[in-house]
Amino acid sequence: DFGRSSELAFVVEPSDDIAVQEQPLVLYCQVEGIQPITITWRKNGVMIVDSENAFMLANGSLYVSRFQRVRGDGSSDEGEYDCMAQNHYGLVVSRKAKIQAATMSDFHIHPQNAVVEEGGVARFQCQIHGLPEPVILWHKNSMPVNTDNERYTLLPKGVLQITGLRAEDSGIFHCVATNIANVKFSREARLTVSGSHSTVYKDPMILVGPENLTLTVHQTAVLECIATGNPRPIVSWSRLDGRPIGVEGIQVLGTGNLMISDLTVQHSGIYVCAANKPGTRVRRTAQGSLVVQAPAEFVQHPQSISRPVGTTAIFTCVAQGEPPPQITWLRNGQILETSDHIKLKNNNSTLSIYGINQTDEAIYQCLAENSAGSTQASARLTVLWADGLPSPPQAVRAETVSATTIQVSWEKPLQNTKEIIGYVLHIRKAADPVEMEYQEAVSKSTFQQLVTDLEPSTSYSFYIKAYTSRGASKASEVTVVSTLGEVPAMPSLFIKVINSTAVQATWEPSIKLGQHEGFKLYYRKVHLSQYTGPVLLASNVTAYNITHLDASVVYEVKLLAYNQHGDGDSTVRFVSLRETVERTVLNPPCDCMKDEQNNKTSTTGIIIGIHIGVTCIIFCILFLMFGYRGRLLMCKNVQEQLSTPQIPRSQRSTVLNGATRRDRDDRDLNGKQLDMNELERLFPASPSQEQQDKGMTSAHSSPAPHNDTQISTLPLDEFSIIEEQPDPVPKAPRGGSPPAPAPDYGPANEG
After folding, report:
1. Mean predicted lDDT score pLDDT of the chain
2. Which of 35, 136, 414, 621 is buried deepest, with most CB atoms within 10 A?
3. CA–CA distance, 260 with 257 (Å, rounded to integer)
4. Which residues form the Fibronectin type-III domain (predicted)?
């Protein structure tokens, strides 16, 4: 590598400028590097020949004696200028400097007369084009406007705003535009302030909103916003994307104009001006876009390098700007043409030169340009070459060994072989670009190399260089050979038992199989030597059912992939159907649809059966309960009748009354009383009660033993029901004996 002073580079480059008509113009260019250095100038790509009007100074700068926008012959001194510097290492070109003539047009917008009420807002505007941008000042009544008055706001684009108008603001206004080319005056306009300040409510209204601007970094942007209304609206600013505007370099001019100083790319966006009625949400908005451009600048410069013959040189050039710059490469001042060994990548940010030789030695330049400006950077490629280097290796041969291996052999160079320290084999797919090449180093005593891990059925190119400590030989002749085709790899095989006589073989498609035409499937009983098959299957098939199998034996299933180069290795699986048969016997398969219907029918039957069963149980319980109670009542009355002497009716009532009183008292003490209503329901009274009484008396004129036979012969309809009036039972004294029987008060009512 060489020091900085040896590099041919620009110290000062020409810059953009605005020239004044009939005035001299100087464009500067200063270069450093190894002498001798020759400097020349171009305008719009054409070499400038020294003349009386334009010639180069001793320091390399260009001097134009009288700048002419348009000359008598129709030519112009306006254009893009660049300077070129050259020494014996190469040539470099400076950035392009844009030279324009200073001009000023007539006013295309003049101020207009205005009548505004007191307290309102007045706005005057005048516009004029010029290079450089004219400075516009305002005069009132032929005197410069007092800019110290806070109610007067002057904007850079030729706008005058007057807020809070008063009677003394009335007058005649005009503007004055000035630049290096000229001074011009606009027409006059009269401002009349009428009446007193109105108190009538007026909705907020934006008179003038921000306009769209396109500026360059470090410039100043002024976004205008002037609003009226009663009460006076409050003006605020925001960004449409919600990002904060910030405070650095931000200033409010007048009552609502936004000024942004020292612009950066981050200031680009859409700005919204809002006029709000105080204390309410009533508002009016207007918006304008601000685009900030940035000239191209380098993030990474290309670096000068030295490389031996036959190696690769890489230059990197990264630039940024807004809009993003375009990158162009030059070789000794001329646009670089790409070829097989010269490649541009990454949007031209990377320049690669493969297999360099002496003709590639030059100065390479990276030009970055956008609408905001251009810049350049250069680097030199030095190709190392020494006398006495070996001649190219001889008799290079390549032989195919397998689908992934090639044997390369060669013979040593014919000249200068003593200093050889090794060989480098350069390998590349024949269809790939040069930058995809890779190398393998070989010792100086080896004249063959086995290249492995190649792709099947693919052509490869090979060449060899001999290396010494001082550099490499030229490349040998290139030889091209193809690898053999390859049979497919083993497929993955899975076996699934379907039933007692069938299985399913499945496999997965995979890129590891390589190029294959299809599959071959074989199967057999393990105790037999003969396979059934092959079953030929297409390459897109991934499953096959094997049927009509014998459940009592074990089967072997084999699958392989094949192509035009032959059959690949097979995958073997063993399967037995015996366990499936046993499981089927123990757990017979079910018909799911039939079972589902049966389940639905069974469920309905169970529900109906439950309802019928519950109904039967309820009826049984009722029958048993009422039957038991009826039988109990009957038995008790029979016992009472049998235990009472059979006497005439007139006497029986008294006897029963006396006999039953004791029984009733006993029943009362035991808590067992009959429900009279229930008895009447179960045993209704006979219509001829007397006949029943007589029949019962005659039938039992003589006492009979108290036994079951007598009870069973007693008719049910011969019972009579007796109702007695309850008598109070005196309580026994505490600790005394039981009370005496109650006296007989006469017969009870007969029911």
Report:
1. 81
2. 136
3. 10
4. 392-486, 487-583
CB 174 within 8 A of CB 139: yes
Worst-scoring range by mean pLDDT, 2-16, 275-289, 430-444, 728-742?
728-742
Please tell me what DSSP assigns to residue 722: B
Is residue 726 reached through a cis peptide bond, with omega within 30 degrees of 0 on the bond before it?
no
Name the phi and psi angles at 271, rounded to 5. -105, 140
Average pLDDT over residues 553-568: 87
**Does residue 516 have a pLDDT over 80?**
no
Coil, strand or helix at 513: helix
Determine the Cα–Cα distance for residues 510 and 324; give it in Å rounded to an integer: 44
Count of Cβ atoms closer than 10 Å to residue 287 Cβ: 17
In whole angstroms, how far apart are CA 241 and each of 47, 117, 244? 50, 38, 9
- Alpha carbon distance 302, 351 (integer Å): 10
Q: What are 655-671's pLDDT values in tens digits? A: 333 334 444 444 444 44
What DSSP designation does 541 have? -
Measured CA to CA, the distance from residue 533 to residue 524 in angstroms comes to 9
Collapsing DSSP states into helix, strand and coil, what is residue 114? strand
DSSP summary character for residue 750: B
Find out whether 339 and 331 touch, Cβ atoms under 8 Å: no
* Residues β-bridged to residue 114: 191
Q: By C-alpha distance, which of 748, 743, 655, 742 is closest to 697?
A: 655
Q: How far apart are CA 503 and CA 97, in angstroms?
A: 83
How many Å apart are CA 25 and CA 48, to the nearest integer?
Answer: 15
pLDDT digits (tens, 9 = 90+) for 321-347: 999 999 999 999 999 999 888 999 999
At the topology level, CATH places domain 105-285 in Immunoglobulin-like (2.60.40)
Number of Cβ within a 10 Å radius of residue 256: 23
Contact status, residue 286 vs residue 238, Cβ threshold 8 Å: no
Burial of 53 (0-12, 13-18, 19+ CB in 10 A): middle
Tell me how far the alpha carbon of residue 376 is from its chain's centroid: 40
Please state which of the ranges 574-578, 608-612, 637-641 shows the lowest mean pLDDT: 637-641
Distance from C-alpha of 634 to C-alpha of 623, rounded to nearest angstrom: 16
Number of Cβ atoms within 10 Å of the Cβ of 388? 11
Q: Does residue 637 carry a pLDDT above 80? A: no
Domain 301-381 - what CATH class? mainly beta
Give the Cα separation of 670 and 658 in Å (integer): 19
Range in 232-246, 602-616, 626-640 the model is least confident about: 626-640
Find the radius of gyration of the CA atoms of the chain: 61
Q: How far apart are CA 398 and CA 364, in angstroms?
A: 38
Element of type H or E holding 81: strand 79-87
Q: Which amino acid is at 545?
A: N
DSSP 403: S
The DSSP symbol for 603 reads: H
Classify 397-482 by CATH class. mainly beta
Domain with CATH 2.60.40.10 in the chain: 9-101, 105-285, 301-381, 397-482, 494-576
* Residue 209 near residue 286, CB atoms below 8 Å: yes
Note the pTM of the prediction, 2 decimals: 0.57
**Which candidate, 660, 662, 651, 750, places its Cα nearest to that of 697?**
651
Q: Which two tokens stand for residue 34?
A: 């190894």
CATH of region 494-576: 2.60.40.10
Q: 9-101 adopts what CATH topology?
A: Immunoglobulin-like (2.60.40)
Q: Omega of the bond prior to 231 within 30 degrees of 0, cis? A: yes
Q: Is the pLDDT of residue 26 over 60?
A: yes
